[in-house]
Amino acid sequence: MPISCSNFAAQIPLPLALLRTTGKNNYPAIFPSNFYINPRPILFNYNPSSRCDCKQIICSATAQDYSDTLEFESMELGKYSKELEVAVKAVQMACLLCQRVQESVLAKSDEQVQAKADDSLVTVADWSVQATVSWVLSEAFGSEKVSIVAEEDVQVLSKTDSLGLLDAVVKTVNRCLTEVPRFGLTALAAPLGTSEVLEAIGRCNSPGGPNGRFWVLDPVDGTLGFVRGDQYAIALALIEDGEPVLGVLGCPNYPMKKEWLNYHNGYHRILSRLSSAASASWDKGCVMYARKGGGGAWMQPLLHKEKKFVWPNSARKIKVSTIDNPALATFCEPVEKANSSHSFTAGLAHSVGLRNQPLRVYSMVKYAAIARGDAEIFMKFARAGYKEKIWDHAAGVVIIQEAGGVVTDAGGNPLCFSKGLYLEGLDRGIIACSGAILHEKIIAAVDASWNSSSL
């Protein structure tokens, strides 16, 4: 971070020792005695003829320059710090796994994609991510202490006609686990066998409930977006006594430019090639995370190439938008019409004066868009008979709330994660907003419009 002083000319590293100096104008007095300073050198301009001393140099920085770092240090040392670190590592690994599988799926649509009983899709990535995350959590906390609710079960892979699919999953998992040393984890002595992979997947059979601690995993949220080369997410949350306390969202295709979300994958890639090398491009991806009471939500870039993961890995704080006028807001809704009503949300948007086109994206990327300030409203009103699953919302709820937003059902009630696999007792639908004022306006509009709807 360059710290400028008008009398200085050359650039030299600022010694960390200077951050412990004392004096009347000593800025680093705000740091606690045990505060960890990132060893990355801080640069400033220096001219030997100048009489400006080191204290003045430090004082030229503003409090804002250090505020995010201070807040992250406080979060890192708080409750659930180990759980958060392990969860972020697991999701980072899962993102890399998914990127490789998605490239393969796009190159050749083969047996890597299967249809489930409800006609939704499942891929090699779904089972492979589930096995990988289960293995990482079990290695970190002990398999006997890890309880996981996850979307996929092991029954399909156990069938005799699924041997080719199972073999692909085992190979994908082991390829991913060869990279665990990059994440500070102990390398496997030998690749996992078929039975071990099935055991890791089958371990994700918790019924959830109101008591104790369990993890909630959606290995590939937005599988249709995944197989189309579009948006998808890996979502991992920790629930304790029925309440989400930690959430991690991996968004491998989430572009760094808000406007790119409105284009399909192919257009993203073209735009990325046309962008300057210095600009944020398509292939970066990100992981967002937060813990309850952690002082904020955070985003870090997706790990690429052969780099090693260093916690917290260049994380920066993210915040929701400050827009509270519906006319200026952007709202998100699901791409598919199968389990949500676009007509009702469109009518509702019109009634509150929303002028912007809706942002239709697959998966919990909608939660990520609100948390990062790219959109202000997410509304989902399920069609009759559809039940919302806890893994589709738990991680996103924590991140939006810690980023400053509000998530409730349409009656203004907190979402209930203590009744098993589904969000039981949901009042009409789900509404997530960037702030309380906007949220109140949307709730009022829902109440005014509901009786005239056909839901």
UniProtKB/TrEMBL annotation:
Cofactor(s) named in the record: Mg(2+)
Entries under CDD domains matching the protein: PAP_phosphatase
InterPro entries in the cross-refs: DPNP (IPR006239), Inositol_monoP_metal-BS (IPR020583), Inositol_monoP_superfamily (IPR051090), Inositol_monophosphatase-like (IPR000760), Inositol_monophosphatase_CS (IPR020550)
GO-annotated biological processes: phosphatidylinositol phosphate biosynthetic process; sulfate assimilation
Record-listed Mg(2+) binding positions: 151, 218, 221, 392
Single GO term (MF): 3'(2'),5'-bisphosphate nucleotidase activity
SUPFAM superfamilies: Carbohydrate phosphatase (SSF56655)
Cross-referenced Gene3D superfamilies: 3.40.190.80, Fructose-1,6-Bisphosphatase, subunit A, domain 1
E.C. number: 3.1.3.7
Record's keyword terms, sorted: Hydrolase, Magnesium, Metal-binding
Enzyme superclass (EC): hydrolase
Record's catalysed reaction(s): 3'-phosphoadenylyl sulfate + H2O = adenosine 5'-phosphosulfate + phosphate; adenosine 3',5'-bisphosphate + H2O = AMP + phosphate
Family: Belongs to the inositol monophosphatase superfamily.
Protein name: 3'(2'),5'-bisphosphate nucleotidase
Source organism per UniProt: Handroanthus impetiginosus
UniProt lineage: Eukaryota, Viridiplantae, Streptophyta, Embryophyta, Tracheophyta
